[in-house]
Amino acid sequence: MALGDAPLWSRSNAGDVDAFAKLFERHGRTIYNYCFRRTGEWAAAEDLVSIVFLEAWRRRDTELPEDKVLPWLFGVANNVVRNHRRAQRRYAAVLLRVPESPSPGFEAEADLDDERQIKPILEVISRLPKHEQDVFTLAAWFELSYEDISVALGLPVGTVRSRLSRARQRLRKLDSGLGLEGVVATNTQEALEP
Amino acid sequence: MNTTSSMPPFRDLPPGRLADRQQHLLTEIRRDQARQADWPRLPSGILGAQLGRRRLVVVLTLAAVLGALAATPAFGVRDALLELLGADRFPRPADVEGEPATTGPHIVLAAGQLGDQKWKLVANESDKGLCLHLELIEPQRARSGGCGFALKERGIGLLTSNLASGSTWIFGPVSRRASTVEIRLADGTEIAARIFPGRGFAPNFYLATRATPITPTSVTARGATGSVVGRQDID
In A, which residues are within 8 Å of B14 by CB distance? Predict the structure, then answer.
């Protein structure tokens, strides 16, 4: 039977690299998609997921509430994404050592399609204050609960609630002028429902 | 139209890339472990960013004010700080006739308390090479250590300091290639030492403490792959 996140984190905390590798295996894909949805670039997202987990390893002595490893990883990813240019510079030497891979053409094409698709959405989101962007993306696009967002961003639950509420109000106004009916507003509304 | 339909769907990393990235992650972590163990683990640049610019400005301003106070003897802060840090309680090597002359700053590598005894581990460069000393601060005051470690021969140096109460410190410089240091004791058991960064010195350093008397017979440093990168036996 596979170990849960909590014991794997506990082992990572004690320096067990293999346990940490299992957490990467389990959550790498989610964090990869999070990084894409915040940056709009698949190639950057791939590097950022490596950085997120290297940062998480550096901070492995963090005490986490039971089963909150993934929300916490979202929090690490949020910080990395916010400073991703700096993070990429800082980890430039590390990223140079990533094994080379063949570049299949169809994926490059799919990458571009996705990036074209997400660009207008990110443009709308970028008009929110940064702290509201953080809360909104976790709630609307990754369906995190208030409690999990609270762990991820280190905020009281009440603050999460109010930021999300303000983000929704702002997005409704922005949306009406941009012709992106429902692109953001629908899920924001859903995110607000308990 | 909703976010689910307009947002590109979740996807996996390109084929083989998850495994590649996982392998890369493991390699980098082990490389980091080999370079320097995690003590003390300082906030990284990314973590530092969490402080926020405003708080950073406040911290830097406070540091500048304290620095100015400490640098001005008339304020008396410097003397108070020196007293607090115990700087006046031990003659530095350069102050003692016949001892190596200090050629670089004294850097506190580690500090702590073992039982009631406060201590710190200090390194400096001298005209006889690297010096490493354990300084006992309170309640006992003492200083033990040495200079001129030749790591090229063994990859590790070994020093032991004991108190009558039984407290024991085993410490020394160790090759930067070491990711673990094991100390074999006279009773046949082994204990692990913590490795910490060189803070500007050529080697890293290790330290093990015990509140009970122990006698080391050998110390072995191993690299990330388990190969021996340093060893010293005590006759």
Answer: 46, 101, 104, 107
Q: Which domain holds residue A120?
A: 107-194
Q: Name the band, by pLDDT with cuts 50, 70 and 90, for residue B46.
A: very low
Q: How confident is the model at residue B20 (pLDDT cuts 50, 70, 90)?
A: confident
Contact B117, B139 (CB under 8 A): yes
Q: What is the mean pLDDT of chain B?
A: 75
Domain ranges of chain B: 83-233
Report CB contact under 8 Å: A94, B28. yes
Backbone conformation region of residue A89, classed left if phi is above 0, alpha if psi is from -120 to 50, else beta:
alpha
* Cβ distance of B27 and A97 shorter than 8 Å: yes
Whether complex ipTM tops 0.85: no
CA–CA separation, A98 and B91 (whole Å): 50
What integer pLDDT is reported at residue B89 of this predicted model?
Answer: 36
Does A50 contact B21 at a Cβ distance shorter than 8 Å?
Answer: yes
φ/ψ of A97, rounded to 5, equals -90, 0
What's the CA gap between A37 and A180, in Å, rounded?
Answer: 17
* CATH number of the domain that residue A166 is part of: 1.10.10.10
pLDDT at A138 over 70: yes
Which of A8, A13, A32 should be substituted to probe chain B, the one whose Cβ sees the most B Cβ atoms within 10 Å? A32
* CB-based contacts of A28, cutoff 8 Å, min separation 6: A49, A53, B13, B18, B21, B22
Cα A118 to chain centroid distance, Å, stands at 15
Find the farthest-apart pair of alpha carbons in chain B and give their distance in angstroms, rounded.
84
The 10s digit of each residue's pLDDT in B196-212 is: 877 778 888 899 988 88
- Minimal Cα distance from B37: which residue of A? A15
B131-155 pLDDT, tens digit per residue, is 888 888 888 888 888 887 766 667 8
Please check whether residue A144 lies inside any domain of the structure.
Answer: yes
The CATH number that applies at residue A59 is 1.10.1740.10
**A121 and A165 housed in the same domain:** yes
A chain contacts of residue B53, beta-carbon cutoff 8 Å: none
- Count of A-B CB contacts under 8 Å: 114
Q: Which residues of A touch B38 (CB under 8 A)?
A: 15
